[in-house]
Amino acid sequence: MQSVDQSSSTNVQVFCRFRPLDDHERSLPNQRFIEILPNSKSVIVHPNKESREDAQFYFDYIFDEFSSQQLVYDKGARSVIEAVMQGFNGTVFAYGQTSSGKTYTMFGPNLDDPEAMGIIPHMITTVFYNIENSDPTNEYTVKVCCFELYLEKIRDLFDTSKENLKIREDKMRGVYLEGLTEIYVSTGEEVHELMKYGHQTRAVGAHRMNNESSRSHLIFSIAVSQTSTEDFTTKVGKLHLIDLAGSEKVDKTGAEGTRLEEAKKINKSLTILGQVITALSEGKRGYIPYRDSKLTRILQDSLGGNSRTSLIITCSPSSWNELETISSLRFGMRAKMIKNTPKVNIESTVGELKLLLAAAKEEIHQKNKKIKRLENNQSQLEESMSMMDFEIDKKYEDVIKELEETRARLSLEISKNSKLNSELSQVQNNYDDLKSQFDALLAQSKLIDEEFQSVEEILKVKEEQIEQLTAFKNSYENGFTTANDAKLKLEQVIIEKDLEIELLRRKLKLSPTAFSEEDKVRQEQKRKEAQEKAIISKYAPSLLDLSMDSQIGDENWRLEKKNLIENLKLRIKQIIDLEIALDDSKNDYNSLENSMNLDAKEAKRRNDHLQRSLEQLTLMYHQLVNQNSALSVEKQILEKKSTRLSEKLKLIETSSAALKGELKRAKEEIDQLKEELNQPNYLKNTMGALAPLIPNSRIKKRIRGGGNQQLLATFAVQAKTYSNLRNSFNQFEVGK
Ligand SMILES: Nc1ncnc2c1ncn2[C@@H]1O[C@H](COP(=O)(O)OP(=O)(O)OP(=O)(O)O)[C@@H](O)[C@H]1O
Fold first, then answer.
1. Please, which pLDDT band fits residue 344 given cuts at 50, 70 and 90?
2. Which of 104, 148, 204, 314 to mutate to test ligand 1, by most ligand atoms within 8 A of the CB atom?
3. Where, by residue number, does ATP bind (predicted)?
4. SS3 332
């Protein structure tokens, strides 16, 4: 069966029904505590205790104690059966505390009285009314089942020997009960009888609040299948009508023993139902605790699933049940928030099945081919993946190896670099030392310069004094030279006169020896002295100067001058020494600076080189890491692809197996039905107690939809069959 989305999601419709006060409640003071507003959509609760505040609740409709069964059905449930007739799933259920009127609402106090009957009998009537009034080209089959959930066990109410049915789930059928009796019916009366039968078979017990309290959750289901004889499409709508057992406060109801056990189980399953509703109302689509109880598993589709659902909250209007009523109203408000997504269920006819079978066969064939192809692809993929894995691993290993080597090289370079750095810092230290020495020398030289300048200034003064003295000496010398020259000239004249005199004497005496020897020696000495002086004055005036100095006799000045000269010489020597030392240190400094510059340049060059290689290595490292992560991503994608392919393959295999199984089951069912049909005592054997009620209950009965003409024609026959059935049923009951 497939579901066709012909509708958007709809909220669960929630109604509220207040029953009249019962005898006990009427005997109490402050009986009523609720106020239904005129729009019949909201109710205000006025709590008795002043400490509690008024609370307002909103519903799709609120039925008061005077609301008729017909009104409750029309407003609260009719739309659901209309949807079921169109192929949707539908659920109507009643929830409320014990003795609040759930059974009254779902079944009614009298199942045969059209005015008193509740929702379930009304539904049955509507189903068959709709069939009878539908287009004659429609063909219907209707099957019903009825079971109860009692003490957490599922009991088949059409075959009570089935006491503990198991819940199963598969893709095709959804949640279902294995082995549950399903009865095909052809008339509303048949369903009516079956409903009564199930209702009577239900576990009922009495307690302080309800003499006929339902101790189980009852589910009555009708599946309506509608086939068009024109296009052979089939829609199947399933309707669940549920009368829940009521929650109870055991101290109020006085439950003991089995009753207490029942109450606990009922309360527990209702608590889980509340949790499911809370989770759904909060939009927790991820985890809903459906599986925590059998009731919620059965209701899975009705709450948050593929179903049009109506919930009727039944309440007591009495303040005696104030807390229970408020709790039920809150439950209803939460349920109102649940969204369901009902879809039309389309089922195939035999003709369609044949076509489907052929199509399925073809599909299976195609899928098998595809599976083979996929298997091949997968093995190829696996092969290439393993090769790829190998290559990736190898590449990865190479990369890692290269990385390790690079790292080793890097650490070597780093240690070299740090060594160079320490050398550099040592050179830097030396340089700093020299620099400070140089600075000290520079400072010293500055001092010397300053001293030198002051000495120069003194020298200047002294030079000026010397110049003055020299000028004085020169003028003095000039005077002396002139006097000396005059003296020399005079002496020369005297010598010449002496010589003339001698000559004259000789002439007179005719003998040269006329001059005495003494005179000759004296004359010679004088001549020599004169000659000497001339020579001295001509060639060595400085000597004269000195002799002059000594002659002028300024002894103090001479001494001072001498000291000054000595001092000057000493200072000059010191300056020269300092200059030499300065030059030396300048040279040292320059050479050091040169060598240092060279070292620093070299270190910088190496450092730059190292920096560059470090950057390159880092780049390479990053590239390798990127390459590696890209490869990992590629690997992951391929793995994911492969997993997806495997999953797809598995899905195809599963769906193909399910399809095969389904086809096999359908075939077996057809064969079995054919076989059963051929057996004369078939019905007696299979239906047991229900056999007299519903003839041929395991056989699909095709009911033609149609106008009233056909209806009238068949009605007589059906009425006769019905009265026959009732007779035989009565006989059967008597005979039991
Ligand atoms: N709307 C109503 N009008 C008149 N009587 C009502 C109405 N609803 C309930 N009652 C009466 O109240 C009593 C309890 O109702 P009912 O058995 O339907 O309650 P319940 O909720 O099914 O209880 P439990 O959970 O114990 O089975 C019955 O006697 C029933 O006839």
1. confident
2. 104
3. 96-103
4. helix
